[in-house]
From TrEMBL:
Species this protein is from: Hibiscus syriacus (Rose of Sharon)
Segments crossing the lipid bilayer: 20-40
Alphabetical keyword list: Membrane, Transmembrane, Transmembrane helix
A Pfam family recorded for this sequence: DUF707
Protein name: ATP binding protein
Region (Disordered): 68-96
Biased composition annotated in UniProt, kind: Polar residues: 68-87
Length: 391
């Protein structure tokens, strides 16, 4: 009778089965042990790199680990713990409106029109910082006149052209145009542009802002000498004197040949109810005004969004400086010629058989009346409310 022996193959199969069972039991036991610990906190650790700055990565506490749960990462700016972040909120009422949640050190409420590079170090971008701004609202047909005008302004001026005819690249025939700022929107006026692109916080770096028409003769004008006279006589709002025989509307803006500056005049009987009010004093026209930084901050807020021609502003400018009859004046020693080229009128449209310029002219007159009415009502409403609250 033969002896029964166990096969090697059978023994290997049993060992494999035992290993599988043991592994399964171990996995189940580990899972049960894991469930017995409700939370797990991992400490914060730092990763340093030669390329990146130190980044803090922190796993937040969690109750039920899951492979599908995202791992939250701490932003580099979040230096406080989650608890501190929720208890320490930033609110700075003195910050500009809308920026109250920002730390004051990061707020930049003002900007500028300085051109910057796309490369290099930011603090090396500017080789010069112009102190003054001159803007012209232009059409390409007046390019020769504008070329002559721009050459009267030194490198201390930022040159800004608003194009009402949509033609901008053609201006590169002038070398200065390549460094100028060009903004193009068809059929708009300089006051429309000024309201939308010359916010006081944008032009804050400039001591003086020139807002000029395109049809001005500047043969007898020098911008640097003009600025010196404006400073000397303490003018916050000014304009160059007008050549007496060209485009003259008001006596106040007529050039005097015997002085540097004048601040008052005599007009037709009944035109001025007081010698210190427009158009006898505290008055310049809107064709070539020059504003100090502080005066422009006030005037900009007075410009109405829908009244694009600016008619009536000249009589209200005195509201922005005090005393107006001393701080508004005409510079006689630096004078210009108003050529009265009706370029803007040609940008209108014919309606009801009227020429384009007629429609533009009618709107100018309507806007003047509307502005006067609005200002009068606003003043009355203010003083009425003031009297109500004082009782």
């Amino acid at each position: 009778m033969g002896t029964f022996t166990r096969s090697p193959v059978s023994r290997k199969s049993n060992e494999s089965m035992r290993l599988i069972v043991t592994t399964f039991v171990g996995v189940v036991f580990g899972f049960l042990v894991g469930l017995s610990f409700p939370t797990l906190s991992l400490t914060k650790f730092n990763l340093s790199s030669g390329i990146l700055t130190t980044i803090d990565i922190k796993y937040t506490e969690y109750t039920k680990p899951s492979l599908s749960s995202p791992i939250p990462l701490q932003h580099p700016l979040d230096n406080n713990s989650s608890a501190n972040a929720t208890s320490k909120k930033i609110w700075v009422p003195s910050n500009p409106r809308g920026a109250e949640r920002l730390p004051p050190g990061i707020v930049r409420a003002e900007s500028d029109l300085y051109l910057r590079r796309l490369w290099g170090k930011p603090d090396e971008d500017l080789t010069s910082t112009p102190k003054y701004l001159v803007m012209f609202t232009v059409g390409y047909n007046q390019r020769k006149n504008i070329d002559a005008a721009v050459k009267k302004f030194s490198g201390n001026f930022t040159i800004l052209l608003f194009h009402y005819d949509g033609r901008t690249t053609e201006w590169d025939e002038f070398e200065w145009s390549k460094e100028a700022i060009h903004v193009s929107v068809r059929r708009q006026t300089k006051w429309w542009y000024a309201k939308r692109f010359l916010h006081p916080d944008i032009v804050a770096p400039y001591d003086y802002i020139f807002i000029w028409d395109e049809d001005l003769g500047v043969e007898h004008f020098d911008a640097e000498k003009y600025i010196k006279l404006v400073r000397k006589h303490g003018l916050e709002i000014s304009q160059p004197g007008l050549e007496p025989n060209k485009g003259l509307t008001w006596q106040m803006t007529k050039r005097r040949g015997d002085r540097e500056v004048h601040k008052e005049t005599e007009e037709k009987p009944g035109w001025c109810n007081h010698p210190h009010v427009p158009p006898c004093a505290a008055f310049v026209e809107i064709m070539a005004p020059v504003f100090s930084r502080d005066a422009w901050r006030c005037v900009w807020h007075m410009i109405q969004n829908d009244l694009v021609h600016g008619w009536g502003l000249d009589f209200a400018l005195r509201k922005c400086v005090e005393p107006a009859h001393e701080k508004i004046g005409v510079v006689d020693a630096q004078w210009i010629v108003h050529q009265s080229v009706p370029t803007l009128g040609n940008q209108g449209e014919s309606e009801n058989g009227k020429a384009p310029w007629q429609g533009v002219r009618e709107r100018c007159k309507k806007e003047w009346k509307m502005f006067q009415t609005r200002f009068s009502r606003a003043e009355k409403a203010y003083f009425k409310a003031l009297n109500t609250t004082s009782h």
